[in-house]
Amino acid sequence: MEGTTRSVGTSALRVEDTRILSGTGRYADDVKLFGGLHVAFVRSPMPHARILSIDTSAALDVDGVVAVYTGSDFAERTHGISPKLGPPSYRHEPILALAVDKVRHVGDPVAMVIATSRYIAEDGAELVDVDYEQLKAVANIDQALDPARPVIFESIGSNQLFEMTHTAGDVDAGFAAADVIVRETFSQHRVAQVPMEGRGGTAEFAAGNLTYHATSQSPHTLRAYVAESLGLDLEAVRVVNTDIGGAFGLKINTHREDLAVCAAAYWLSRPVKWIEDRNEHLLSSGQAREARMELEAAVRQDGTILALRGDLVIDQGAYVGAPSPGGGHAGLVANLMPGPYAIGGFELHARVIASNKCTFNAYRAPWAIETWSRERMLDVIARELDLDPADVRRRNFAPNDGSAEMFSGLTLLGNSCAESLERALEESDYKALRESQAAARAEGRCVGIGFATYIEAAPGPKNTRAGGRPMHEAAIARLEADGQLSIFTSQAPHGQGHETTLAQVAADEFGVPMESVRVHHGDTANTPWALVGTGGSRAATMATGAVLHSSRQLKAKVLEVAAEILEASPADLRITSGVIHPVGVPSVQLSLADVAAQAYLGTDEEIDESENVLEVEAAYDGGLGGWASGTHLCAVEIDLQTGRVDFDSYLVVEDCGRMINPAIVEGQVRGGVAQGVGEVLYEWSAYDDEANYLAASFMDYLLPTASEIPPIQIVHLENEPNEEVFFRGVGEGGLLVAPAAITNAIEDALAPYGARIRHQYLPPAAVLELAGVIPQD
Amino acid sequence: MIPAQFDYVRATSAEHALQLLGEHGDDAKLLAGGHSLLPMMKLRLAMPSVLIDIAGLPDLSGVRRDGDDVVIGALTKHGELAASEILEREAPLVAHAAGLVGDPQIRHRGTIGGSLAHADPAADLPSALLASDGWLELQGPEGTRRVAVDDFFTGYFETVLQPDELVVAIGTPRRMGAGWGYEKFTRRANDWGIVTVATVGGRVALGNMGPTSLRARATEQALARGASIPDAAELAAEGTEPVTDLHADGEYRSHLARVLTRRALTRAAG
Predict the structure, then answer these.
(1) Tens-place pLDDT, residues A604-614
(2) Which residues, 6+ apart, have CB-to-CB distance to A204 below 8 Å?
(3) Per CATH, which fold does B7-53 belong to?
C-alpha cells in the first residue's frame, strides 16, 4: 500500500455515528410512504392447535380496515419458501407467511389486518375471531423424542428433522486406551437476540416493481425469497435496507411477516408497513441456542484427551428458518468441536427436533454449543483428575505452527489459542489470583476463577468454507465524476461500522483520505449478490478482500488514464493524498477529479474508450483464510446467601489478525461479552412444559443493563497469517466463549460445595441450588 | 402495544375528579404518573374507557409535618420523596425506599398515591409504609376517611379503595432517630424486588412474598419476646405463600425473606 494516508490500524471515528447519534438515521419505522397502510397480526395464543374457523367479518366492518388476510390467502396465492443453507437431508415443510389449518407455536401469525393506521389495525385484530381445537404440545427435546407425542408437521411424519453421525480419527482406540472416562451432559437454554430495533419493513408495488424497505442482514436473499413467494421475476423485486438498529443474526433469515407485508402491498397496490412491537418481538421473532450435548471423553491420567464422543440435540422450534435452518450448523459443530486441541478421535451424533416453539434463528455464533460444552468438559476433566484447568488445556493444544490439522482436514492456521491462554494467565496474574482465592475461601467467601478458549472460523481455513459456507464475496469500486471514490459492498452493516472500516481499507489502498470514500450498502439494485450479507463474521476478511481488490484494480485503471494525460508510464505514477504525480516529481500533479473529468466528459482522443469506465467489480474468495481466536478469563464472587454473582474482573485476550479499527474491534468484543453475561445470568426465552411462552415482556426477559456488565479489559494479539488480507472477523468470538468462561468461574467458586454446572442458565436461585444452600428443584 | 380507544378528561380539582369518577364509575381510571397504568393499557390488560387526569391537581403534592405524623400528598413523586429533607430526618425508610423505585425517569413521573393504589406486592413503597405503620387518606363522595396501611391491601392489585374514591394523602409517624432497615434483592439494578424487607420500630414488612405487602408477624412476635435477630429472622417466611415465577420459586423467595430480614434487622439495630 502506498500514499500518505494510513487509516487502517487507527481508531478512526465512525462515519455512521454523526447520523446515528444525532438522530438523523433512517430506520425501518422512519420510512413513511404516501397513502401507506399498516398491519397488525393476529397471533395464536396456543402452542399447538387446529384452526377450525376464522371469522374476519367484524374486523372488516371497522372503519379504516382495508383488508384482512388469513392463511388460506397465502396458501392459494403464494409459494412456500425453503432453506438454502444446511444439509439437503434436513426435513421441512415449505414456509408460508401465515398459519394454514394449524398453529404451531404461541405467536404463530394466523391473520393480518391491514388498515389506514396501526391503531385501527390493532382494533381490527382484536375483532378477528379464531376458533381453535387445542392439541397436545411438544415443549422440549424429551417430548419431541417421545413417539407418543403428536407430530407437529404431518407431512414430515416425525418430530425429528435431521440426523447425522460424523466420525474422525480413531475413537474406539482412544476409549480403549483411556485411564478415565468422563461423562457429562451440557444443556443450553433458549435465548433471544433482542436488537434495539425489532423486525419490520414497508413494501410498495408500483409500475410493476415491488420495493421492500427492510431491515435485513441478507437483503439479496430476502429479495429472492420475496420474488419466489409471489411468483415475480427477481428483477421486479428490490430490497432497500434502512439503517439497522441491530440484528445479531436474527435478521439473516427471511421472516414470515416480511413475506406477508410484501404480498399485501402487491395485492393491494398500496404501500404496506409493519413494525413489530416489543411484545410481538419477544413472542414471535424467533429465538436461539437451545440444545443439549452429552459428552464422553477418553482421558489419560495426565489430562490428555484421547477421544471424544458427543450426542447433540438441537431444538429448532416449529418452523424452519430460511435461508438458514435452525439446526443447520450441526455439521459445523462436528467440524469445530475439537477446537484448538489435538484430540485423537471424535464422533458426533447429532439430531435436530421440532417443538411447539418459535423459530430457531442464528444468534452471534450459532454453533456455540460446541465451544461451551467443550470448554466446560475441559474444566470437568481438570476437576475429576485434580489438575489445573490451564494445564489440561496446555496438555491438549495442537501445535501452533500452521502444521496441525483438525480431523476434518482443516488446518489450524492463524489460531493463537495457546498464546492467548498464556497471555491471559500472565496478564491477570493467575498465580496471585489463586492465592487470593485460597485466602478468600479461608474467610468463608466464595470466589472463583474461570477461563475458556475459542477458535472462530472468521473466515476459517479455505476448506471450512466448502462445507456449505458461501465462498466468495464481491465489491464494486467506482471513481465518481468528481473524483470521489464510491464502494458498493454486499455487507448489510447493522452496528459493525462497515461504512468506516471499508472506507479505511479503500482509502489506504487507493491513496486517498478516508473522507474521499463513501461506502454504499443495502440496496439490491446496486450491490453485488451475496447469500449471507452481514453474518458469520465475514466482513473483516471477505468484504475487506473484495474492497481491496476492486480498489486496487480501479486504481490501475485510473493510473492508466492519468498516464495518457501526463504522457508517463502508469508504473511511474503514484497517488498521494488524492493527488496523482510521477515518482520523484511532486511538482507535476493531477487530481483524481481531473482524471474522472477526462474519462467521463473529456474529448482526449488518446484515451481508450474502454478506460472511460472507471468502475471495477472484484471478488475475493478468502484466500488461505485462517482462524480468529482468543481466551477469556474472569473472576467472580458469589453471595452464598442470595446467589448473586459479581464479577471481580473480566479479561479478554483476542486475536483477529491486524485490526482495521481497534475501537470497533473492542466494541464488538465488549458487546459479545455483555451478551454472554446476559445469556448465563439473566436471559431466558422461557416456555413451560406445555409450550406456553412466559417471557413476552422485558419484565420477564431480562436483558443486562450497563450496571450488570463488569469493566472488560482487552488485550489484542495481532497474528497475521502470511496472506494479503491480514484481517479476520471479530463479530462472534466474544459471545462464543464468554458463557464458558463465566460458567467455569462460577463452578470454580462453588467447587468446595461439589457443584457441577450442567445447564448454562444460572439465575440466583440456581446458584444457591448448586451450592446446596436451598434444595434442588 | 397500542391501547384500546379511550377518552381523556383533565380534572381541575379533587372534587372534580370525584365527580367524574361518579359519572363514569368502573369504566374510568385515574391517571397520575401513569407508570403502571399505561403499560397495562398498552398490553390491553387494562381497557378503561375514560382516563381522568389528576396529575396537575393543586394541593395533592408535597411533604409536610402534621403533629406526630409526616403527611405526603398523593401526587408526590418518588424522586421528591427521595429528596425530601423532612422524610430523610423523620421517616428515612420511606425516603430510602422511594429512591430505589425503578430508575430516575420512573422516579420523576411515578407518584406515591399511584404506587399504593396500584398495590403491586413487589413495589417498594407499600412495604415501606406498611413497616412504618402508615395510613392513607381517601376522599369519596361522602367525605374523607383514614385507612391504616395494615388494612388497605386486600389482594393482588386489590385494595379497599372504592371506585368512586381518590387517595389524597399518605401519612407516616415521625420517627426521628429510629433504627430502620430496607433490603431489596433484584436481579438487575432497576428491577422490582424479588423480595424486599422493610423494618422500623419492631415492625417488619415483606414485599413480593404473597399477594400483598405483608407483615412478618412471627418475626415481629419473636423480636417482641426478645429473640435474637438471627432467630427472629429465621421465622420471616412463616405463614407466607410466595409465588413462583420466572425469576424465583417460592422456596428461594422464602430463603431470601429470611436472609434479607436478618440483614434489615441487623442494619436497623446498628
Answers:
(1) 666 666 666 89
(2) A33, A210, A211, A213, A265, A270, A271, A272
(3) 3.30.43
Mutate to test the interface with B, among A41, A113, A642, A681 (most CBs of B within 10 A): A642
What is the separation of C-alpha B39 from the centre of its chain, rounded to a whole number of angstroms? 18
Where do the domains of chain B lie? 7-53, 63-173, 182-268
B252/A765 Cβ within 8 A? yes
The better pLDDT of the pair A86, B198 is held by: B198
Distance CA A669, CA A683 (A): 19
Asked whether A315 and A141 are in contact (CB, 8 A), the reply is yes
Given 3.90.1170.50, 3.30.1180.10, 3.40.50.300, 3.30.930.10, which CATH number is that of A31-135+199-244+251-284? 3.90.1170.50
Q: Which CATH class is domain A291-464+624-770?
A: alpha beta
Decide if A123 and B4 are in contact by the 8 Å CB cutoff.
yes
**pLDDT score of B25:** 85
Q: Which three cell numbers mark A111?
A: 391473520
Note the Cα B203 to chain centre separation in Å.
16
Q: Are B251 and A641 in contact (CB < 8 Å)?
A: no
Tell me whether A526 touches chain B (CB under 8 Å). Answer: no
Distance between CA atoms of A653 and A632, rounded to whole angstroms?
Answer: 6
DSSP string, A114-182: EESSHHHHHHHHHT-EEEEEE-----SHHHHT-TTSPPS-TTT-SSEEEEEEEEEE-HHHHHHT-SEEE
Phi-psi region of A79 (alpha: psi -120 to 50; beta: other; left: phi over 0): beta
Structure-block grid coordinates of residue A189: 437454554
Which of the residue ranges A152-161, A407-416, A515-524, B146-155 would you say has the lowest mean pLDDT?
A407-416
Residue of A nearest to B43 (CA): A279
Give residue for cell 483438525. Answer: A406
Domain with CATH 3.30.365.10 in chain A: 17-24+472-620, 291-464+624-770
Is the per-residue pLDDT at A5 higher than 70?
Answer: no
Tell me what ipTM this predicted complex has.
Answer: 0.95
CATH 3.90.950.10 fits A17-24+472-620, yes or no: no
User: CB A126 to CB B185 under 8 A?
Assistant: no
Burial A631-661, CB ≥16 within 10 A → b, else e: bbbbbbbbbbbbbbbebbbbbbbbbbbebbb
Domain B63-173 classification at class level: alpha beta
d(Cα A751, Cα A763) in Å, to the nearest integer? Answer: 18
CB distance A763–B249 less than 8 Å? no
Could you list the beta-strand ranges (E) of A284-323. 291-299, 305-315
Half-sphere exposure of A301 (CA within 13 A, CB side): 1
Predicted local confidence at residue A608, as pLDDT: 63
Fold of the B182-268 domain: Enolase-like; domain 1 (3.30.390)
B43, B247, B256 member nearest A279 (Cβ): B43
Say if the Cβ atoms of A641 and B259 lie within 8 Å: yes
Query: Could you please report the per-residue DSSP string of A711-751?
Result: P-EEEEE----SSS--B---SSHHHHHHHHHHHHHHHHHTG
Q: Give the C-alpha separation, A199 to A195, whole Å.
A: 9
Q: Which three cell numbers stand for residue A331?
A: 455439521
Question: For residue B121, what pLDDT band results from cuts at 50, 70 and 90?
Answer: very high
Which of A123, A763, A777 has its CB closest to that of B187?
Answer: A763
Contact B187 A682 (CB under 8 A): yes
Domain with CATH 3.90.1170.50 in chain A: 31-135+199-244+251-284
Distance from CA of B100 to the nearest CA of A (A): 14
Contact residues on chain B for A765, CB-CB shorter than 8 A: 248-249, 252
